[in-house]
Design a protein that fits this description.
There is one protein chain. The chain is an alpha+beta fold and about 180 residues long. It folds into two domains: about 10-115, 2-Layer Sandwich (Beta Polymerase, domain 2); about 115-175. Helix content is about 45%, strand content about 25%. It has helices at about 10-20, 30-40, 55-65, 115-130, 135-145, 150-160, 165-175; strands spanning about 25-30, 45-55, 70, 75-80, 80-85, 95, 95-100, 105, 110-115. The strands form three sheets. It has a five-stranded mixed sheet. A two-stranded antiparallel ribbon has the order 6-7. Strand 8 and strand 9 (about 110-115) form a beta hairpin. Helix 2 (about 30-40) crosses helix 4 and helix 4 runs antiparallel to helix 5 (about 135-145). It is globular and about 45 Å long.
């Protein structure tokens, strides 16, 4: 697949995910791009956040193989797309909860590891819990309405993180929305 101005966020996610796999780099897509993926772009992210276990040199080599160049510490850009690829530092965790099981998708576009819908909701709620980020709260609702989620697992996680009241606000919003 050639990256150009018409390449969608989802296509790019598969392309980058496949390149990372081909270079032996274990990486998982997180953040707003996963919201875009699960809501068919009802929320439009402008970047892809991959948590990867790799050195900067390994990431530079992998990303160069598909036309990306590092522009700052953990950000990569491509001359034919406005989407940015970022590599937040590992480990992959949602709040204090390490993530070891993720969704893996292989299709004609390539290969992609990403958070499950339930993990995506938890990821967005984490931003709401700790930073009162209303946009993340609404993203969590979008995913919860668009995908099957395990509400009990989210409730258990929120309780363990000390945010039962904020979770109750989310649960009420999901039932009303």
């Amino acid at each position: 697949m050639v990256i150009d101005a018409s390449t969608t966020l989802e296509e790019l996610a598969f392309l980058v995910g496949h390149a990372l796999q081909q270079h032996g780099i274990h990486a998982v897509l997180t953040g707003g791009a996963v919201v875009s993926f699960y809501t068919e772009n009802r929320y439009a992210s402008l970047d892809l956040d991959f948590v990867a276990h790799a050195t900067r040199r390994e990431l530079d080599t992998c990303m160069a193989s598909i036309g990306f160049a590092r522009t700052s510490g953990r950000h990569y850009t491509h001359p034919e797309t406005d989407f940015i690829v970022e590599f937040p530092s590992p480990p992959l965790a949602i709040g204090n909860h390490p993530v070891d099981q993720v969704r893996e998708v292989t299709d004609a576009r390539g290969y992609l590891r990403l958070l499950t819908p339930t993990q995506c909701v938890m990821d967005r709620l984490a931003a709401y819990f700790w930073w009162k980020d209303q946009q993340s709260f609404h993203q969590a609702i979008l995913v919860a309405k668009a995908q099957p989620i395990d509400l009990q697992s989210i409730a258990d996680w929120a309780r363990a993180e000390g945010h039962t009241t904020a979770f109750a606000t989310f649960e009420k919003a999901v039932r009303v929305a």
